[in-house]
Structures are given as structure tokens and as C-alpha cells.
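Folding problem:
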Amino acid sequence: MTTVHNLINQLIQLQELVVANMQKKVSMPKARLEELGKSIAALGADLPPQVKSHFNRLLTKHPEAIVPVSGETCAGCGMALGKSLINSVVKAEQMFRCPNCTRFLYYPEQLVERERQSRKYGEVRKTGIARFTSPELMMLPLKGTTPEEVLEEICTRMADEGFVRDGGQLLDLALQREAIISTAVDNGLAFPHVRGVEGGGLAMVVGIHKKGIKFGGPGRTLTRVFFFMVIPTATSAFYLKLLSGLSRIFREKEARESLLGAKSEEDLWAALIKATKKMIK
């Protein structure tokens, strides 16, 4: 008989596959995703019928059907949870749901901790892409020669700039996500990310690798432009819209070349603002 802990892990893995499928659909509309679809079907085949039914119903409304307890709140909707419910979720003797949004709840072994100053870029109301990134999160040039090295550079920058406490932990989670299916897409772009980073808003590094590296994407295309995001659970639906917008903008050669032609991180910031100002409000 499947234990509750095993069931929770199965739902989390299934959700990661479902969200990865959504991400590929918005970033590569013509991609063939049969293998990913088969993996989703296989992983969900033996779920208890009531759990499977509610899980699938939730996914028609949100990208997240099972969410962590963050502090003393539901990470999905932000509702404060009673201590009794939290204690029950920790014990995991049965499945529990948020009384407000009805998402399944679990208590994570670890959460990526956000620094207080991770909100610094949002203290003054900003518009467009500047709501999600800042000049400090432009990286040029990236120097790594492997996916692991490039992601380590990016995660270290996020930690150094106070967006997360532990860059190593962030790197581990980013590599786990890449192991599901590569976030590289056509035209030398990649959208690596870590979801469930609570305690602040969505934050994004933009990095340029002048020579390009093999990042596990389609064909033999080298990846040169990286959009790395940390995504709180509550912004998962918006993240897909942002991903779609960035994909549409930078499919165009002129937009990509404006980033690749930057000579400094200041130039990269200016090029990013200019390229996205019409589509990302």
C-alpha cells in the first residue's frame, strides 16, 4: 500500500512533469511532446481515484495542484493555516487540503530562503520587465562551458545580490529541474528556473554566453541567451504568460541580436528594456 509520503512525492513529480509540458507548449508551440505525455500518463495511472480526480480538476484552474506550507500559510493562495492543520500536514498520516483554495498541502523538507532585500528592486513601483529583474541581475559574459557551470554562475549572482540565501541550494534545485526535460528551446534560448521560491516576487537573471554551450535543447543549437527565474508558487500562472511573451519576443532575430550585441551589463539592461517594452507591461 502506498504511504502518504510516497503519494505526496508522486504528486509532486507528476506536477513537475505537467508544468514542464505547459512550459514547452508556450515556449515551443510546434514541439512534439509525446514522450513527456506518456510519462505523465504513466506516473498518474495508479493514483487513488479521488486524489487523481481532484488533482486533475485543480490543474484545470492552476499550474499548481499540490503546494508547500510556507511559514504558516498556503503557498498557493496565501491563506493563513491553523497550527492544528499545519501539524497534521507535517505528520502526513493522510492527505490534507487548503480550506480556501483546496490545493493539496505538504510540508517541505527544505525551502529556498529568500533574503529580505530580495524585494529591493520592487520598492519603487516599476513597469514592464523591470518589475521582475534589475541591472544587478544582468550577466555578461557567462564563462561556464557546461550547463552546471553556467547555472552555478547564475545562482551565485542571485545569492551575491541578496535574492536568495543559499546559491548552492538553488543550483541543486535548478539542476533537478533540468533533469526532467531541458529548458533550452529554439533560437539559442533557455529558460532555466526554480519554482516554489517563497518570500518575495518573481526574479530573473538574464545572462549572455557569447560562444554558446550545449544545454540539452533541440538539435545541435548552442544556447547563448539564458533567462533564469525564481518563481514563488503564487506567481506560477503568471510565469507561464511571461515565458510566452519572452519566447515570442526573442524568436525574432533582431531582438536576440540586440542582447547578443551588448558590450556590457549596462548595455544588456538597456537592450532588454527596449526589446520588451511593447509586449511586457
